[in-house]
Amino acid sequence: MHDAHRAHAETVDLSANTRLRQAAARAATAMSGVLLDGNEAFVSDTEQSVAARRLILRERDALSVLPLICRGWAACSVTLFDGRRQILSFLLPGDMAPTAMVFDDVAHVSVEAVTDVQFRAVQRAEFKDALQREAGLFERFSRLAAVEKFQADQLAVDLGRRSADERIARLILGLAERARQRGLTEGDSFEFPLRQHHIADATGLTSVHVSKVLTEFRRAGSIEISERALTIKDPGAFRAIANMR
Predict the structure, then answer these.
(1) Would you state the pLDDT for residue 32?
(2) How far is Cα 67 from Cα 33, in angstroms, rounded to an integer?
(3) Which residues does residue 148 pair with via DSSP β-bridges, in sequence order?
């Protein structure tokens, strides 16, 4: 009986993960990004592939093109001389590298593939020229830059003042909302390929501390993590943990 229940649970988990992967594929095909839809003349027609844990861009690389993520997740980070790393943001399908990089000749962050990633190259100089010509594109770009500034401010507060529970809950809720906006959710579930070291580097915690907090969240029934999917079981209560209104 117990084995039959476990087999049923595994079937449900696999089915949910399959639906999430299908949702990701649909979103990638639509290329419904916040800024670009992939049809612009300065966006490459062909997709390039990068394996998980490989660099798409390296900090201090000369910039001629910027990646527009089509499939998979990537992380923007800064690495200190002693190897410590701070993840500044995660890129989901439809996201481009940080807006500031449009105006920089050299990359100020590294962009690493969290999962296998497919991306299209955005010609930086041509994109910058288009911003001066197209009012609609400039407005979308300005809004995105404002969102990035807000996220950077919130990260500063996270690292300086918020508790470990708040930091991790806010990270999960923020990613869930972005996934929802791109059609990458199935109810309160979404694809979640992050490992403990990703969460640790994004929240300024140790992997051991992250493991402890996630275990507490699971025991409290706040979240459920299975393979590469995360379900927020009680969104209202989880927002209260994150101290989000």
Answers:
(1) 41
(2) 12
(3) none
Task: Tell me how far apart the alpha carbons of residues 14 and 187 are, in angstroms, rounded to a whole number.
Answer: 15
* Residue that the structure tokens 């089915």 belong to: 15
Pair 31, 54: CB distance under 8 Å: no
Whether 111 and 75 have beta carbons less than 8 Å apart is answered as: yes
pTM of the model: 0.85
State the DSSP code for 35. S
**Which run of H or of E encompasses 117?**
strand 117-123
3-state class of 26 per DSSP?
helix
Q: Is 115 helix (H, G, I), strand (E, B) or coil?
A: coil
Rounded to 5, what percent of the chain is helix, strand, coil?
45, 20, 30
Both structure tokens of 205: 């915690």
**Would the pLDDT of 8 be above 60?**
no
Instruction: State pLDDT tens for residues 138-153.
Output: 999 999 999 999 999 9
pLDDT tens-digit map of 78-100: 999 999 999 999 999 999 999 99
**Burial letters 43-77, b for 16+ CB under 10 A, else e:** beeeeeebeeeeebbeeeeebebbbbbbbbbbbbb
- Dihedral, 225, 52, 203, 36 alpha carbons, nearest 10: -100
